[in-house]
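Appendix B.2, paired examples.
Example (i):
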Amino acid sequence: MKLTLSFVPLLAALVLAASADAATSTAARDWQFKDDSVGGLAIDNLVGDVNIERGTAAGFQVSVRVTAEAASAQEADRIARAVEFSMRDAGSSSSLQVLLPEAKFPTIYIAGVPVGWWVGDAKTEYLGEKRRVTGYKDKGVQVRVDILVRAPEDARLVVRNLFGDAAAAGFSGELRLDGGRGRLSSRDGSGKIELDSGSGPVEVSGHSGVVEADSGSGSVTISDCRCRINANTGSGSVTASILPMTEHLVVDTGSGDVRVTGDLSGLKRLDVDTGSGGVQIEAAAWPAMEIAIDTGSGSVMVDVPGAEVTRHDGADRTVRIAGGGARGVIGTGSGSVRLRTTPAAD
């Protein structure tokens, strides 16, 4: 999910902080989707955190908690009750949308939205509409919706959560997390996961299957992965710690550094490209592979026992490991490349 904010300048003075004696109100809702909802559920939320865990029922179970804050308890209750939900329980096209009617939520407070004398309001797109948000507490309605999803095994789930974190634990099946500014993460999952953030960090650990991770300006960190990896960032770094069952590693960054560690002996495809970042690969074991290294102005260092290194024009190299076999490519615009063998872990 790519987050775009358009700012409208104000000529007003800075706004004072909200009163410390604000009242808080909460409201909770629960939904049990039918068994065939395992085929596909889509959730949309503007502000709040989403947590996903393994459920015990055949269909999805979703619980939400609305938290509203205002100057009085009566006003906080009114805000909490004003949040609406659109729920569709229809097999593979099931959905749940958090609705914040513009008439009752003309401007929504979002922690972290830039504030200052040059910034007053920001607009972002949610459910096909341009909505006004602000980083000033007393300029917007203070509300958040936190969601807990209990997902059955081998499920299909899409979560679009614009402002807030989204985290999955033990998910099995196909999962897509779209975020604007928050952290997206998955641990101990299996199947195919896609994590796409506008500017937040992306983290995956202990996954088995396929990982596609994308962040516009945040970092991507993948650890203990037995999977096919595709990682892409605009300006963030990529760090991957992989296990020998990983066969496919593709990384593309605009200006971030790339660091890969682990047992690479299972790799059949290696493709790393960065515009201005460096590439460092430290492997306890290498596959039989021929790696073409293309750098614009960076240096190349190869410390892999038994590797054959052929120099070309400039800093370009061809590195043949264990006689070659699989093909690998590493390209940088101006960063350095370092390949080395590290001692195997005990």
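Example (ii):
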Amino acid sequence: MRTLIATAALVIISSAPAVAQETPASPSPTPSAAQGVEIPDFATKSWIVADAESGDVLAGQNPDEQLPMASTLKTLTALTLLPRLQYDSTYEARATETLTEGAHVGVLAGNHYTVAELLHGMLMRSGNDAAVALADAYGYQRTLDAMNAEAQRIGASSTVAMSPNGLDKPGQVSTAADLAQIYRVAMRDERLQEILTAKQFDFPGQPPKDPTKPRADFTIFNNDSLLNSDYPGFMGGKSGFTSQAGRTYVAGADQNGRKLVVALLGIGGGTTQTARQLLDWSFANVDRMTPIAQLPAVTGESDITAAPAGVADPEDIAPTPTDEQAQLAAASVADAAVRTAGEALAGAPTSVDPQEAAQSAIDAAQQAGSTAASVGTGLSADMIVAGLQSPPFAGAPVEDQPAGRGLIATVLIGLFKAMMWLLLFLGIAVVLLRIRAVRRINRRRAEQERMRTRATGTPAADSTPRRVPSRTG
């Protein structure tokens, strides 16, 4: 049954439209490492291997070249906000956060989330909506200022943060060396280690209309393939992709007492496949490599007192996306409904009942659809999101907000596509289950006839009723 579910899910996922086309990397011909160690071509513009504990740089290629970093920037967001926001404090999401472009975890306007839940959504699912919600919870511009100050404090001085989620912004850059430094400092917080190595997590869903009923939480799965393949000693990683940055990745692993961190920018091949090759090569040669550089030393901790989420300046929130950005966000969320449903089915255990698996897919699609609905209604004066009425978002007068007629049409088309894919999957599942049942019945009949033949010594008469042709054909 698991094979059936996974196969059908792959049909759905493989048919989802691509968001962007990456540009193949053009690696420099002069990577550097210890003398005498042969370095393969990892087809990556910039990469680094460093000792996570000592900061020794063991190998690299253009490690100090400033490049866009995509969602690997979220490691700096986490490093910055973990000590500044109380982990268990709650925050009420705003409609503008649901309009964030790119990947969504499913933040709903008016819903309440703990800082811990938003961090899980931001890092496990690379939710741009969760990243913006976290930034708003501390103060959006205040968060960006703190991120840049934190980068300078730990020695990642070539990093410039202009968003909390890594979406392309003019002038927003980092380096492979900086990302490795940010990662190894951030991993000192055990909470971050727990998040990056969690394979699944229950994320808050749509609140019930009836307050006596439980909230419709849903399961999110970590999208890191190295974690899900149980890479030896894996300490967690964060991938990213945008049209300008291409594929990016930062991760670490602990093998035979050595903790290594790798960071890659402008990956020309598969993200985790290239990272696995780099980690495998690094651990195979680590004893032969002499440090060629040193990441900055970080002494002491910054003197910061954690504050409750949502007590910052109410005017210091993310800017309202343009109508074009909002339509892109709606389309990405609608397409995510199909992928989320496929993941729910692919992750089902082998013993799950087919009807339960199908219901899980429907629930997942409804959750993604409810997020899309919040995008579609996010610009209205009286927003009805997930069955709750919430006030209009701050930041712009109601009369100045765009009408969003094209946005609503985009959302409806996306939801229709998602439901069609679900119906297709259910139809395939029913047909395959029926074929399996018929084969089981035929095998049972054949076994019964063999037993009769053994008992009587003569072949059993064919008991299968023969069809009499009708006059109508």
